[in-house]
Specification:
The chain has twelve helices and eleven strands. The chain is of the alpha/beta class and about 325 residues long. The chain folds into two domains: about 1-40; about 45-335, 3-Layer(aba) Sandwich (Rossmann fold), CATH 3.40.50. The longest helix is centred in the first third of the chain and has 36 residues, at about 1-35. The radius of gyration is 24 Å and the shape is globular. It starts with a helix and ends with a helix. It holds the Pfam family Abhydrolase_1.
C-alpha cells in the first residue's frame, strides 16, 4: 500500500511543480497589473520628486528656445492653478489684431512645444500659451476632472480671468480637441478657432496607433519604447537629444494622468459650432485617417476652412511653422 502511494505521489510531483510555477507566474502578473492599474489619487500627479525634477529640467531647457514671456500668470480655477504665459505681439504698427491668440498644446508637452511657432505668430498680435490642467507642465491640478464639461469649465474660468474679452484659440493635437470641447460647452470668449491635426475631432484614432501607444504608456519600460512611439507620430524623425522630445518623454514616464478619455466629437456636434474654424490636417498623420478627417471637416463645419498639408506628420507644427503662421494670419484677418 505504501509503495503504491509513493509511486502515485512521485507521478504527481512534476505536475505539482508545474502548477506551482504557473500559479507563481499568475501571481506575479496580477501584482504587476495591480501596480499598473492602481489609481492612488483622483488627480494627476508626479510619481516621485526625482521624476518631477527630471521633467522640470527638460521643460526649462526646451522653454529657452522661446522668446522671453512678457508676463507669467497663474490663474486659480475650481480645478487647480493654470499656468499662462503672455508674449507681446510685434505687429501693432503693421495692422496686427487686437484680439490675441491663445495656444493649447498637445499631450505631455506644455508651452515649450510652441517654440517654433510663437515668434512667427507674434506679428499677428499678443500670444498667450496655456499648460493644460491635468497634464505634465506648470499647471497644478487639485480637483478631479471627470467629464468633458469639467474639461471645458477649467479652461473657461481661465479665459474669463484673463484681461482680453476674446481669443483666437489655436489647439494642437489633444489641444485641438480641448478647444472644440470648450466651444461646444462654453464658447463665450472665443472669436475663432484653429485646430492643428486634432485628435478625436474629425476621425477616430487608428487601431494600430492605439496598440503602439500602449507600451509607451508603461513607465517601467525602457525609454527607447517611448522614443520609438514619439518618433512614429513624428513621421519617423529622430527624437533623441531634442529638448522638447526629452520633455515629452519625461512627462510620459513620470506624470500620472487622471483625465477621462476624450469623447469623439460627432458630426452632429460639429455642426453646432457657430464660429469660424480653420482645420489644418497633416497628410501623413498616424493619429487619424487624414483623408477622412478632411472630408468630415469640410462636410460638418458650418464656417470651416480646411487645409491639408501633404507629407506632414502629426508633428506638423514643428515641420511647417511658416505655413501654419501664414494660414493663421490670413484666417484671423478674414474673421476680423
Amino acid at each position: 500500500m505504501r509503495t503504491r502511494l509513493m509511486k502515485a505521489l512521485n507521478r504527481l510531483r512534476p505536475r505539482s511543480r508545474w502548477l506551482r510555477l504557473v500559479l507563481a507566474g499568475l501571481a506575479l502578473i496580477a501584482l504587476v497589473a495591480t501596480f499598473a492599474l492602481r489609481q492612488p489619487a483622483p488627480i494627476g500627479h508626479w510619481d516621485s520628486a526625482d521624476g518631477q525634477d527630471r521633467f522640470l529640467r527638460a521643460y526649462t531647457e526646451a522653454f529657452a528656445a522661446l522668446p522671453d514671456p512678457t508676463e507669467t500668470i497663474d490663474v486659480r480655477t475650481d480645478y487647480g492653478i493654470v499656468r499662462v504665459y503672455r508674449f507681446a505681439g510685434t505687429g501693432a504698427d503693421d495692422g496686427g489684431t487686437n484680439t490675441p491668440l491663445l495656444l493649447l498644446p498637445g499631450r505631455a508637452s506644455g508651452t515649450p512645444v510652441w517654440a517654433d511657432n510663437v515668434p512667427l505668430l507674434l506679428p499677428i498680435g499678443d500670444v498667450y500659451t496655456v499648460d493644460l490642467l491635468g497634464e505634465p507642465g506648470m499647471s497644478v491640478q487639485n480637483r478631479p476632472i471627470d467629464s468633458d464639461e469639467a474639461q471645458a469649465e477649467w479652461l473657461h474660468q481661465t479665459l474669463q480671468a484673463l484681461p482680453p474679452d476674446e481669443f483666437h484659440l489655436v489647439g494642437l493635437s489633444i489641444g485641438g480637441w480641448t478647444a472644440v470641447n470648450l466651444a461646444l460647452h462654453r464658447p463665450d470668449h472665443i472669436a475663432s478657432m484653429t485646430v492643428i491635426d486634432p485628435v478625436y475631432v474629425f476621425a477616430d484614432m487608428p487601431f494600430g496607433t492605439i496598440v503602439r501607444s500602449i507600451p509607451a504608456a508603461l513607465p517601467w519600460l525602457p525609454r527607447s519604447w517611448r522614443d520609438s512611439f514619439n518618433s512614429y507620430t513624428a513621421g519617423g524623425a529622430p527624437v533623441e537629444d531634442e529638448p522638447v522630445a526629452d520633455m515629452i518623454e519625461a512627462g510620459m514616464q513620470h506624470y500620472k494622468l487622471r483625465l477621462p478619455q476624450p469623447t469623439r466629437i460627432s458630426e452632429e456636434r460639429l455642426r453646432r459650432l457657430d464660429l469660424p474654424v480653420l482645420a489644418i490636417i497633416a497628410g501623413e498623420s498616424v493619429m487619424h485617417d487624414p483623408q477622412q478627417a478632411v472630408e468630415t471637416a469640410r462636410r460638418a463645419l458650418p464656417r470651416g476652412t480646411v487645409r491639408l498639408y501633404p507629407g506632414a506628420s502629426h508633428a506638423v507644427n514643428g515641420e511647417q511653422p511658416e505655413r501654419i503662421a501664414a494660414d493663421i494670419a490670413g484666417f484671423v484677418e478674414e474673421t476680423a
